[in-house]
Amino acid sequence: MGRVLALLLLLPTVASAEPRVLDRMVATVEAGRGRSGRLLITLSDLRIEARILLVSQGAVGAADGPIPDDTLAATLEWLIAQHLLHAEAEQLGVTQVESSILEASVESLRETLGEGFDSFLQRHELELSDLARILRRQLVVERYLRSRLRFAASVSEAEVREAYDAAPHGDWAEARPLLRAQLERRRQEQAVAALVSDLRSRAEVRILTRLDADEAEEPGVPSPWYLPRGGE
Question: Which CATH number applies to 19-151?
Answer without folding.
Answer: 1.10.4030.10
